[in-house]
Amino acid sequence: MCGIVAYLGDKQAYPILIKGLQRLEYRGYDSAGVALIDDELLLYKKQGKVADLEEYLKDKNVKGNIGIAHTRWATHGEPSDINAHPHFSRSKKLAIIHNGIIENYCTLKKELFKRGYTFQSETDTEVLIHLIEDIQINENVELLEAVRIALNQVVGAYAIVIIAKDNPNQLIVARKGSPLVIGVGEKEFFVASDATPIVEHTTNVVYLNEEEIAVLNRNGDIKLINIKNQKKTPYIEKLELNLHEIEKDGYAHFMLKEIHEQPRSIRDTMRGRINSSRNILSLGGITDYERRLINAKRIIIVACGTSWHAGLVGEYLFEDLARIPVEVEYASEFRYRNPIINEDDVVIAISQSGETADTLAAIELAKSKGATIIGICNVVGSSIARATHAGSYTHAGPEIGVASTKAFTAQVTILTMMALMISFKKGVITKSKYHQLLGEIELIPEKVEKVLKTENKIKGIAEEFINSRNFLYLGRGYNFPVALEGALKLKEISYIHAEGYPAAEMKHGPIALIDAEMPVVVVATKKGIYEKVISNIMEVKARKGKIIAVVTEGDVAVKALADYIIEIPETEELLVPLVATIPLQLLSYYIAVMRGCDVDKPRNLAKSVTVE
What we know:
Largest sheet: 8 strands, antiparallel
CATH class of the largest domain: Alpha Beta
Radius of gyration: 25 Å
Structural class: alpha/beta
Helix content: 25-40%
Number of domains: 3
Mean pLDDT: 90
């Protein structure tokens, strides 16, 4: 959610920090700030955008070759200058930036009140830096030891960076439950909450593990320990990210770019894993756990948001192809409802960022019960990738737009390949059917390309509905999750209320909403329960609802009923979500743009939800 950037080296820190914050704007935030050391510890922060902070700093001293910077997404305390990060310690000799939530901050704050501390902000972060300084003074220890002791008293999640006025040659960083990556240059360090601010400076990185603390020194040394004071060895690895992947490349928005990248991202997700001409489908990341999947009595899929919708498609896939019972759970609910988990269960955790806090907590719960955990995520080296027993990366490339597009189709691609592979190895489907489906999957990228060519038509449809206040999305079978995802995209970026329903459920309540002002998007492809969907469309038409239908090329029956038609190429029923999702993404995008919404950074949302 929040964004962290820090620098230590011989260059001026401020330009690096500001550009880093700009790279992290996609994560979602409400305020920004920086702290620098130039003899004095200078701290500046401002509610609003990074551009507002830049304007504020035009006549300020921003010199110094060590600094920290932050974009905040409010948790404790409303968005304001005071609640923005960084935060000073009482002496103003220390400053901190922090992602995450300190759950026991109230208890710690009460104790510090008793010791005479006062607080400028409403944040849990200010409590932490006061605690660290209190320990440093009263225990008479070095700053590293004070940080270690303090973090042993903390309950919750954190990624922190601390600078000290008295030691301008050192950064102290630590993490638990919130991502942090260290870029290693030539006697310089770059720290960030993800790799996007680092890639243009270095490709050598260290990913901090849970409860690790690093001391970064100007001479290039890294000292690494955990909160139990055990020495660790930093492991430097190569960053798998290219600078052009985080640029717009001429598109108006990252979201539009990422919608158009889907032929490539789907192809990249399949690359090296599928070859229909040789009848090969292999997911190397789960090879050691294939038997667990094949013999699973039940699969539990845990995820949040768009990833949950991908999980719903996965439920249809695994039950249809592999004949394994599947439950799809919101990770946030799963962890709190005392779920029944058995040792022969397989839990599939899905997350674009690999850092989703609720999904991570669900993983830890399932692991404690002995279940096998398979991860599906997009970010190499992320927390979920390291917490699971095995898994598959989606290879979608960086997704900067807050509203997920290419990550969704990449996740569905992985789930499709996984279900098909298991079904074949279980002997549930024939070799000929298996071979046929492999060939169809390989054709999906070019079918997505064909859908993208209908963009202008979709843009014209969008123009008709920019003043609508509500939308209904309907689908059946594999298209039900597509309807849910289409509705989510619209509400996320256009702020129009939208709901997705199984088409047959419309009669059990939502039909009361339908009138001449209600647009109804129906995913009505020929595969599946086609005739039933036509009946549902007729029910909408009888109440004067406006029908926008996504149909198979050459459709006649729905075309005669619908007000607006978007055609997609024909494919196997189980592969329809990969194609039918694309026009709904474009429809949402153009409605939002025409309404003047910031589609890449919709209000109140964050890209990576690293707090509960």
